[in-house]
């Protein structure tokens, strides 16, 4: 769920930054040929995110979201992503204080607040991340704030009330018998909360 267009959120994991492995730019490129009109967000749960900027841009990614914890030169990485023609997202893991990201928010299009430890779907939503969102929203009324991890129809409302405007839902949709109904349920709870 996104304030603007819906994005397809692609979880890229390298088995190093997180203890799980998914896929890389060749698969994204293949997806792009199958789904030419979708907006793609690559959530790069990888070490050395600077390495994959151009390959992901070439594969058709629209927003490149990297982790603050994965790189030392954030400003150079942001420039590289923008020069490759993509929007910039910057994410923080649950144990990273929100203060660490503040100085970079104005450089980015989106800040991602993880509500699980990155690496696996199906984990429990961490409600105690909501103050990070509230604080960010109070300081940056216009930036996109994304929440990812354990979001369901039960907690999507508190994400919206905290000030998030972009939601990633994995298991809440993929694990539902009736997926359109699950998406509608999420949207309904979201609309009730805002
Ligand atoms: O980034 C992720 C895990 O690192 C997933 O996007 C996230 O966990 C979403 O899955 P779920 O909604 O099942 O928690």
UniProtKB/TrEMBL annotation:
The entry's active site is 11 (proton acceptor), 148 (proton donor)
Give the enzyme's EC designation: 5.1.3.1
Q: Residues that bind substrate, according to the entry?
A: 43, 119-122, 150, 170-171
**Reactions the enzyme catalyzes:** D-ribulose 5-phosphate = D-xylulose 5-phosphate
Q: What keywords were assigned to this record? A: Carbohydrate metabolism, Cobalt, Iron, Isomerase, Manganese, Metal-binding, Zinc
Q: How is the cofactor bound?
A: Binds 1 divalent metal cation per subunit.
What InterPro entries does the record point to? Aldolase_TIM (IPR013785), Ribul_P_3_epim (IPR026019), Ribul_P_3_epim-like (IPR000056), RibuloseP-bd_barrel (IPR011060)
Domain of life, per lineage: Eukaryota
Cofactor section? Co(2+); Mn(2+); a divalent metal cation; Zn(2+)
Task: Provide a GO biological process annotation.
Answer: pentose-phosphate shunt
Recorded GO molecular functions are: D-ribulose-phosphate 3-epimerase activity; metal ion binding
Q: Which positions are annotated as binding a divalent metal cation?
A: 9, 11, 43, 148
The record's similarity note reads: Belongs to the ribulose-phosphate 3-epimerase family.
Query: Subunit structure of this entry?
Result: Homodimer.
Q: Which NCBIfam families match?
A: PRK05581.1-4
Query: What is this protein for, i.e. what is its function?
Result: Catalyzes the reversible epimerization of D-ribulose 5-phosphate to D-xylulose 5-phosphate.
Q: What is this protein called?
A: ribulose-phosphate 3-epimerase
From what organism does this protein derive?
Answer: Artemia franciscana
């Amino acid at each position: 769920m996104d304030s603007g267009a819906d994005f397809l959120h692609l979880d890229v994991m390298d088995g190093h930054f997180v203890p799980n492995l998914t896929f890389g730019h060749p698969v994204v490129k293949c997806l792009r040929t199958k789904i030419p009109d979708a907006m793609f967000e690559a959530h790069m749960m990888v070490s050395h995110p600077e390495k994959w900027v151009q390959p992901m841009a070439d594969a058709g990614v629209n927003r490149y979201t990297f982790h603050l914890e994965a790189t030392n030169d954030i400003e150079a990485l942001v420039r590289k992503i923008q020069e490759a023609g993509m929007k910039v997202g910057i994410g923080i893991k649950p144990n990273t204080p929100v203060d660490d990201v503040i100085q970079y928010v104005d450089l980015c299009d989106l800040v991602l607040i993880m509500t699980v430890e990155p690496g696996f779907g199906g984990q429990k939503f961490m409600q105690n991340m909501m103050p990070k969102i509230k604080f960010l929203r109070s300081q940056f009324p216009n930036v996109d704030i994304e929440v990812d991890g354990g979001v369901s129809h039960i907690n999507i409302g508190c994400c919206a009330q905290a000030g998030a405007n972009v939601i990633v839902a994995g298991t809440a949709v993929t694990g539902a018998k009736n997926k359109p109904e699950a998406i509608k349920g999420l949207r309904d709870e979201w609309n009730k909360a805002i």
